[in-house]
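Progress note, project year one: complex with 8-OXO-2'-deoxyguanosine-5'-triphosphate.
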Amino acid sequence: MKLLPVALALFYRQLPGNVLEVWTQVREDDGPYHGLLEFPGGKIEPGEEPVMGAVREVQEEVGIEVDPKLGRFMGIYTNPLPNKTILLNVFLFPDQPSLIGRGQWLKVENPDLSRPFTGQIPSPNHQIIDDLYHALYDRAHE
Ligand SMILES: Nc1nc2c([nH]c(=O)n2[C@H]2C[C@H](O)[C@@H](COP(=O)(O)OP(=O)(O)OP(=O)(O)O)O2)c(=O)[nH]1
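Model obtained:
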């Protein structure tokens, strides 16, 4: 089984009323993810620090510079495909002023969390978004 490490940059912001917003962009290329709203990201190059992969993809895809020191490792999520398993290394980044006018913010609220975006986002992203929401707002875990 082939393992393919990918780095994702998840820009997020918290709004009053336990609202989370996550920043996404439309995937333009052909293939199974065409037209979906996704986080900037892509394959980690050999020898590359995962967070640097996230920063590089943000530069390439969004056209903005972000400081790798701002990236916080959230976890690794798997996307099992028939011929390979994608390992999504997710890094959290705070909202950046340079994002203004680019992409779109998805509003995540209780009780549905990411469910309203079914079919609009890659399937592994549901777990990522829902986990982030719970980590930010579930007091029970503290
Ligand atoms: N960019 C991105 N990829 C995601 C997300 N969720 C998710 O499952 N994926 C999957 C889709 C792809 O199988 C893989 C990313 O690979 P990619 O094809 O974008 O990587 P890349 O930019 O380096 O590829 P390429 O242009 O060189 O072909 O991760 C997401 O939110 N953003």
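Residues 6, 8, 33, 38-39, 41-43, 79, 86, 88, 122, 124-125 surround 8-OXO-2'-deoxyguanosine-5'-triphosphate (CB under 6 Å).
The longest helix spans residues 124-137.
No further modelling is planned for this target in the current period.
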